[in-house]
Amino acid sequence: MRPEIRFFLNGRPCRLSGLPPHTTLLEWLRGQGLTAVKEGCAEGDCGACSVLIGTPRRARLDWRAVNACILMLPQVDGRAVVTAEGLARGDGSLHPAQRLLADTHGTQCGFCSPGFAIALAALARRPERDDETILDAIAGNLCRCTGYRPILEAARALPVIAPAVEEAEIAATLERDCAQPLDYRAGGGRFVAPRDLDAALAVLAEEPEAWVLAGGTDLGLRITKRHEEPRCVVSLARVGELAAVGREGRDTVIGAAVPYADALEAISALAPSVGALVRRIGAAQIRAVGTIGGNLANASPIGDTLPPLIALGASVELASREGRRTVAVEDFVTGYRKTVLRPGEVVVSVRIPAPGAATLVRAYKVARRIDQDIAAVSAAFALSVEDGRVTRARVAFGGIAERPLRTPEVEVALTGRLWSLETARAAGEAARRAVRPISDVRGSAGYRATVCGNLLERLWWDTAGPAGVAATLDALEGAP
Amino acid sequence: MSPPGGVHAAVAHDSARKHVTGEAVYLDDMPEPKGCLHAHLVTSPWPHARLTAIDAAAALAVPGVAAIVTAADIPGVNDIAPAFSSEPLLPPEVAEYVGHPVAAVAAASPAQAREAASLVRLEATPLPALLDLREAYEKKRWVLDPVEMLRGEPDAELAKAAVRLDGELMVGGQEHFYLETQCALAVPQEDGDMLVLSGTQHPTEVQHMVARLLGIPQHAVAVEVRRMGGGFGGKESQATLVAGIAAVLARKTARPVKLRLDRDTDMTVTGKRHDFLLRWQVGLDGEGRIRAVTMDLAARCGWSADLSAAVISRALSHADNAYFYPHARLRGLACKTNTQSNTAFRGFGGPQGMMAAETMMDQIARTLGRDPVAIRRLNFYARESGCDVTPYHQRIEHFRLPSMVERILASSEYSTRRKAVDAFNAGSPVIRKGLALSPVKFGISFNKIELNQAGALVHVYTDGSIRLNHGGTEMGQGLLVKVAQVVAEAFSVPLEAVKITATTTDKVPNTSATAASSGSDLNGMAALQAAETIKGRLAEVAAARFGVAASEVAFADGMVRAGNHALPFAEIVQEAYRARVSLSATGYYRTPRIDFDLAAMRGHPFFYFAHGVAVSEVAIDTLTGEWRPLRSDLLHDVGSSLNPAIDRGQVEGAFVQGLGWLTMEELVWDGEGRLLTHGPSTYKIPTGRDVPPDFRVELLTLPNEEATVFRSKAVGEPPFMLAISVWLALRDAVASLGPAGHVPQLAAPATPERILGAVAAARTAGGRR
Ligand SMILES: Cc1cc2nc3c(=O)[nH]c(=O)nc-3n(C[C@H](O)[C@H](O)[C@H](O)COP(=O)(O)OP(=O)(O)OC[C@H]3O[C@@H](n4cnc5c(N)ncnc54)[C@H](O)[C@@H]3O)c2cc1C
Ligand code: FES
Ligand code: FES
User: Fold this and answer.
1) What is the pLDDT of residue B767?
2) Residue B695 domain-assigned?
3) How many CB atoms lie within 10 A of CB A39?
4) Pocket test residue of A43, A136, A217 for ligand 1, highest count of atoms within 8 A of CB
5) With a threshold of 0.95, does the pTM exceed it?
């Protein structure tokens, strides 16, 4: 085991010890004088604190923008970190992302600008420059001054940047220096990042109070907003078994520590509509680290992946020192932020069966804002339609009770019926009666119930409505 | 010919390169002075309560804690009211809202200060709290006496009118959400003086208030601000709170103290845009021409007056927007609630007043079954027909809207698209589109006449380089570069020759807030005047050297010329130095032609008007109330723009901010007066995807008829209100679901929930689907 955090910062190797493990990357960077990294919210929602994180992969670095405000310092162990200061070259010339932002008048007050430079620098590594990709790349960065138009212009003009030669070297150094798993202790806290599941389960058995950490996009807020200081954190992010995406027969198996960004392709292949929903979870910075495993275990009533996983009949594999078991996702969450997980038990993976050819799968998220917003309600449907008749239906809603729910009442109202607008409306009525939402800042109970019902109508227009009729805003020509 | 980077050039923001690399230093980025302490606020958990005890024993026991201050620790006068009085920095007796700072702790680290603050025990007797705007309006709970703007005989004319309509609208408030939260650093100096680095739009006010709080003369306090990460009005009066608390703690501990509000604290403690309850009655002739209007504009001021009187005055003077009301009575009501004290925010009441006018226009057009654009044009101010006097009795001159509307109707292909939208809706059961045009006429000058003055200080050094100072502050709007362009133009030197510096009260005293869009109008003129003074002296020097009359000397291309003679600027400067001629001058400017009687609400408060017009198209989902912008065309009047790139940025940024205000930004308090939306996870401002995918912005650059600085026009606030077109387009989409003549009931912000409610109401009103 290795007692010291090792990473690269703006091209230079760094070794750290002595700082409490709950120190955020943002706090530490600013303390180092790297004040391009700004605090705008300390909750992952504004992007002012964006930095690039490079992960060694196949002898090079895979760069993504992340939010430094909700990242614990030990989470960057084995990674390369670049701040806006580090984007500019040694000779003082700006990175193209920076130059373009300045040249297009993409800065006004400038407080958001280093964060945008980082978001664009991450984009520069990718070949696509269509507006969808660009908007995805900057959706996690708020700007209150410019109205974004010049920033989009800068992004469109951004050249594709090839990896620098040093990167292979840095990747190799990191792999070598961090070959031993991290077991970091300082200031009364401990942060362990085992490489295999047994080791992780062993630490969890000896540290019953430990936080199980995947991406930390939920846990990070307990540090920055509730000011909690964990005594022990067990990170699953480096456990090999949890980091893989694979196919087993007709099932897709996604490791619990796979960030959304890496799971997206497999999910989109399974059901494009679910892929589109995953693209709306948080924003790029959140999806770079946040995981489905974390979303499940967090068991929030508005967890976006739960309704589609329930509708698709997915299951989770759990493991503890006592052994392994498999639980259907619909049975996994038992109440408000409650799951069947026992002490010392973790989620290993999610298994999603491929929907049949005759199955229509749709996932809808209804929120005030398109990007980086929490749903007022969400819904997912898997409907098998044969000869115009619904033969099988699985329906689940989120944001409508203390946990996401499957609604058998709605399924009954659909099954065996002609797939018609009348059926959809009747099922909508059943949905309205079945859900028990609350009122909060994201919507009243009445609004939520109405929308749940209306989403069945949308489902009909979307899957069976006449050609040429737009069923959703996304289907509208010329819409963003 | 202009020098490179003179006026009218689209040069970049002076700090653009520093912004993107992170070299631009914001207050919290500065290295902290030795021994610097960090402060944290102790705030009231009650909306209204009489404080009986503040027990700091546990807090003081936290390691690193240096001091706690309450009202009792303020050595001078405990009042930071920007316009009136009795607005204590820390309340001595009564806490008036949840979040009201009642004490503050200073400790060696921010974490220690936070922990200590959480350990301060407050005891209080709760008092009845009033939290709701409508309730305050109905119970007549005011923070200030009602005001009235009156012209003609509105009651008699209303009674006679062929058609009478009345309406009501709730318009929500808005959080500034400057990306940089409020911050101040107070550093004690010798002699008991205080240096305050403050993120403020109003350094003079911070200076005067800190002096008052500490009981020392104003000359003993210096306030400096280099840049802010956004202000939008939120750092006008309310920055004083933060700076004041830092200064009081610094005085008590004799150490530097920094107070930086985290986002949640900032949103919980500081005031926002006023939400308004708007009510009107309008009388029309048979054609839809307005005969008389009466309006109540009731603003939620929160617990104190702050700048509310001026906000309401501007709301009243913009409740006409671009329309002639022959007879009008507009009442402004300053409602008191136990919530944050609302304050300046881009537009300063103007947007809310204009929402009354535009909603009324929409209602008139729909009720009469007339085209909304035609009804607007019919009611525009018109000099020829004598329809040119505002409710505040100012005569409208140089009204640009008729031709601007003409132009945008053509460039946006309005009538073709109107038909296309109607055709789309006829065949679209789920998604509906809406299209709307809205004009803006915004008065430029502070309503409070004394504020319309500014000073500047210009030094020329012997190498020909120039150092510029003025009272305006930089919050992203590009003021410093614009004023530098003015000075570069005056001396005809390259922009790089002019050094932009921090704004400090010890260089230019007694300045006004950088507000009311007036920054470049006022400071640009003051700087120009200073430059002209020095130029006059240099011309004398050159005249003597060349043997010509001073009137023959010209400054061009970095040279000073007369006839066949020419010398580089720097050489004439050196010559002046040798001749013992002063190379430093102050400049001063006061806006001409304005007067306003605040009690009678009449006069000529505005030097001139800035105009704009927008056409927006949107789509709504009638099943969920979600919506998308599709296209917006903006035409905005900037006069002879000092910097078209900066001005375009102001227009676009203001529009998107306005779009957020009217659609997604919603402030929610619970029944105990706690603000629930105190961070970006719950308070949603627009992201890149919320901007119209087809966004066409055009600047109208006709010279200002009034003699403003190089005939430019103010641009900070006016384009904010172009976003009303988006809100009207949403109403238009909803209206397509109702019967003919249906007037959608849609409050602002038009959240998906409100849109869906309006959709349901339109459908139950019967008729088309
Ligand atoms: C700005 C922002 C935007 C967000 N937007 C969305 C959104 O749009 N939709 C949405 O659904 N969520 C959203 N979230 C919440 C969060 O990103 C997701 O829930 C994410 O999936 C959490 O994953 P994580 O890996 O970061 O979890 P972590 O924070 O690491 O963990 C979350 C919880 O799960 C537990 N846990 C994690 N992994 C395991 C495991 N393998 N076994 C057992 N327990 C485990 C942890 O102990 C913790 O209790 C957002 C969060 C932020 C900060
Ligand atoms: S500070 Fe806002 S996302 Fe990190
Ligand atoms: S430039 Fe001010 S927030 Fe983006």
Assistant:
1) 56
2) yes
3) 22
4) A217
5) yes
